[in-house]
Amino acid sequence: MKIIDYFDKAKGQTLVSFEVLPPLKGGSMADIFQTLDPLMEFKPPFIDVTYHREEYVYNKRPSGYYEKTAIRKRPGTVGICASIMHRYGIDAIPHLICGGFSIEETENALIDLNFLGINNVLALRGDARQFEDKFIPEPDGHKFAVDLVKQINDMNHGIYLDSNIEKGTPTDFCIGVAGYPEKHFESPNLATDIEYLKQKIDAGASYIVTQMFFDNANFFRFRDACEKAGINVPIVPGLKPITKKYQLNSIPRKFFINLPEDLVSELHKTEEKDIKKLGIEWCINQCKELKASGVPCLHFYTMGDVDTTYKIIEKI
After folding, report:
1. Which of 96, 103, 261, 312 has the fewest beta carbons under 10 Å from its own?
2. Could you give the dihedral angle defined by the CA atoms of residues 30, 34, 39 and 45, in that order, rounded to the nearest 10 degrees?
3. Rounded Cα–Cα distance for residues 312 and 130 (Å)
4. Each residue of 36-62: pLDDT tens digit?
5. In the chain, which stretches have pLDDT less than 70?
6. Does domain 3-313 have CATH number 2.40.50.140?
7. Where do the structural domains in the chain lie, given as residue ranges?
8. 104 is annotated as an active-site residue
């Protein structure tokens, strides 16, 4: 089923969904199932599975020089999606990124997903590689997420890269895209960022999942601005609780978001052993307010922490 159909079927009820990371190379599906098994109690309609492009590592050679090598640390997104659908009988949404793929490789990946009956995708540009100060696309790859959305939408209309293909079989992907309540860090301002988001919706995207945030006022402001810009698709808030004190610095640095003054003040006064409890309480309050505002779904970035996610959802 398409993700937007789940929202329609819920008739105003707020759903819950989860995002999981593929295990590191050498890991197993047992790691994923260990996270998801307890959470199935909450009947999520779908699970997101992230994709991570290759990274560069530098290996020292006997000569003393360093050799630059590309490796993929977290493979298996498509296989994980198929396993989740087989085990739980629910939809899995693979993240499809621009980085590391040519447009032909993207088309082939979409064909494979279509054959597997996976008809929901989250289309993202993806991050820059480690040690690169900006995103660099493949020589024959997409530079922006909107171009990826256009390619997927073309396939939904039976249009393939090979112009010799006539009357190609249309795919039926429901396309999700990312939104940033505090703007993407590369955008000059929120208004410009929403203009880019509107382009992705106009290109064929059907719903939006946001970056994590800790101040609901930022989400409400973002949602209102989207509506004013003519964006009328479902907007799903992405959530993650703070569980460690070091995240006071690491989360703003890594995700380019602000933490509310009240939350920071409380975290500073709280001992490390009680940080998770405070983070859970803050997230529960966020969820209750968001649910009361009529959001279609609460989407949790689990990061493998099933216990924390469970404690939040059982209270809402």
Report:
1. 261
2. -10
3. 33
4. 999 999 999 999 999 876 655 556 677
5. 53-60, 63-75, 129-131
6. no
7. 3-313
8. no
